[in-house]
Design a protein that fits this description.
The structure holds 2 protein chains of 2 kinds. Chain A has 9 helices and 6 strands. Chain A is of the alpha/beta class. Chain A has a 6-stranded parallel beta sheet. The N and C termini of chain A lie far apart (about 70 Å). Chain B is built from 10 helices and 6 strands. Chain B is globular, with a radius of gyration of 21 Å. The model of chain B has no long low-confidence stretch (mean pLDDT about 90). Classes of the chains: A alpha/beta, B alpha/beta.
């Protein structure tokens, strides 16, 4: 019995030591990963400086016309830094971006809409803008504000509109009912309930991780998604590089 | 004699690689591991062109890469693995491009059903999700048979998205939700219909999605360096870590999965917090 107990105790301690060593190695591996990203971060800062100062030729002339609609996703905890958001918008405005959607999950940017518009010159709400207005000059920008409620909940509202049409066809054949549930009709229904924003060509994510944080699913079918890092470390050069990379992309849309 | 020596060396090297992989898996399993990994298998044709192969050869090598990924995911303890195999948009390709793919699907599905295949060795349940009505009857029947034949397996769930796009999936889920609610709503009078709260809710759409059989993906990997989702899992990827390696799909290896998981672990706390708030 004593020998058995002793063996069990030894096995227990061997396991504990083994687990401890494994944890140590895991932390070491993650330390290596963190060091890698530190190095990449330093290289990005240098590259960003070179781009901003115009030393890198290929970034000097970028055809921003290809970027018809840009979306910016900001981590909600960072979205309170309104001054940073305004600086980013001013860079984009100076760059020539005309139409932009600002998104954060909790709607912090939506609540700060008025103060953002007040601090920006030549910017109006997307819903109120009229492209045909001759007074809109080159640097004019339209802004749309979105949050998580513009995503799945909006689709449910659009779905309810389709449902009302479906109810009216109570006694019709299956074929007529099938014709209600199409992608075109759902797009139209979303527009009717006030969620008809265009599909962005490019989505820039300012946050700790590369994920779109619930940007309306219906609108990002073929959107290029680029992770820019946290908002507090945003750099003009990195912004230019992201837009340049977008202009170089060729899409075949599945063909 | 020389060949036997080389074969022996390759066998030893293979064993060493498998041993090192096991050690790496033990180490990274200390941290949080993903439950569901999704893949966009992009770059088979570009791989073929780069290596002077036919497109069909590119797809075959891509299929081997898919099988390897399933094996690695099984070793890593991933329970759900989803592959974007054929988009509704791909029907726009020429018929001489589509037919070899359909033949490959049929061959692959038949292979899955054989004794000793990866499905039986790893206890894999196979799902083919998407608008399967768009396929010809042989492909559709083969898919349905494969799903029935593997229904008793439960170690790993392999979800192959065929004739799939997210927008089509959403419309289908809205339609199913409406059909479910129709019975109750038809009994209401006009005023009641207008005053009633929304009939269709987000939870109804969620449960009618093709992908309702799996939890939301923890990681989504798209090969070939393109940084878009191409109408794949748009509804399910709110808090999914996106990884866009530049390698073509047939070049994908364990190292890519390892890197994706290490990054998932780095951001796990943040993504879990966001998921709870959503």
């Amino acid at each position: 019995m004593d020998l058995k107990d002793e063996m069990q105790r030894v096995r227990f301690w061997v396991n504990q030591i083994g687990n401890f060593c494994l944890r140590l190695v895991w932390h070491f591996v993650h330390l290596l990963v963190r060091s890698w990203y530190l190095g990449v971060g330093v290289a990005n800062v240098i590259e960003s400086y070179l781009i901003s100062s115009g030393l890198l030729r290929r970034y000097r002339f970028i055809d921003v016309g290809k970027l018809r609609y840009l979306a910016i996703v900001v981590e909600s905890d960072d979205a309170c830094q309104i001054s940073k958001v305004i600086q980013l918008l001013q860079w984009l405005q100076a760059f020539g971006v005309k139409h932009l959607c600002l998104y954060d999950t909790e709607g912090v940017l939506k609540k700060s809409k008025e103060s953002i518009l007040a601090k920006l010159k030549n910017a109006t709400l997307f819903e109120e803008a009229d492209e045909r207005d001759p007074l809109l000059d080159q640097k004019h920008m339209t802004l749309e504000f979105a949050s998580i409620t513009d995503g799945k909940e909006a689709v449910a509202k659009g779905g309810n509109l389709l449902f009302m049409k479906y109810l009216k066809l109570a006694n019709s054949g299956a074929e007529q009912k099938e014709q209600i549930f199409t992608e075109a009709n759902l797009t139209e229904a979303l527009r009717a309930v006030g969620y008809g924003g265009p599909e962005p060509d490019l989505l820039l994510v300012y946050g700790p991780a590369r994920c779109h944080l619930g940007f309306p699913a219906w609108r990002i079918r073929y959107t290029e998604i680029i992770h820019m890092g946290p908002l507090k470390s945003m750099r003009y050069g990195s912004l230019v590089k992201a837009i340049y990379k977008f202009t170089m992309v060729r899409q075949n849309y599945g063909t | 004699m020389k060949n036997a020596g080389i074969d022996k060396a390759i066998e030893i090297l293979g064993k060493l690689v498998r041993f090192l992989r096991k050690i790496m898996i033990h180490i990274i399993s200390v941290g949080p591991m993903p439950d569901h990994v999704a893949f966009i298998m992009d770059g088979n044709r570009r791989f073929a062109r780069k290596n002077n192969l036919s497109e069909a050869a590119g797809y075959r090598i891509g299929l081997l890469a898919l099988i390897s990924c399933v094996k690695y995911c099984s070793e890593l303890g991933v329970r759900y693995v989803t592959f974007y195999a054929f988009s509704i948009d791909n029907f726009k390709r020429r018929s001489d491009e589509i037919q070899p793919l359909m033949d490959l699907f049929l061959e692959y599905i038949e292979g899955l059903m054989k004794e000793g295949s990866i499905v039986s060795r790893y206890g894999i349940r196979v799902y083919f999700q998407g608008n399967l009505k768009l396929f010809s009857e042989p492909v559709r029947l083969a898919a349905e048979n494969a799903m029935l034949a593997t229904a008793h397996n439960s170690k790993l769930f392999l979800i192959v998205c065929l004739a799939y796009t997210s927008t089509n999936e959403i419309v289908h889920a809205v339609q199913e939700s409406c059909e479910e609610k129709w019975g109750g709503a038809i009994l209401l009078n006009e005023n009641e219909k207008n005053d009633a709260e929304s009939f269709v809710k987000v939870t109804d759409i969620d449960k009618n999605m093709y992908m309702a059989i799996a939890p939301e993906p923890d990681i989504l990997i798209r090969t070939s360096g393109d940084t878009r989702l191409s109408n794949f899992l748009l509804w399910q990827t709110t808090c999914t870590y996106l990884y866009f390696p530049s390698s073509f799909w047939p070049e994908i290896g364990f190292r890519h999965l390892l890197w994706a998981i290490l990054n998932f672990q780095r951001h796990h706390q943040y993504l879990t917090k966001r998921k709870k708030q959503g």
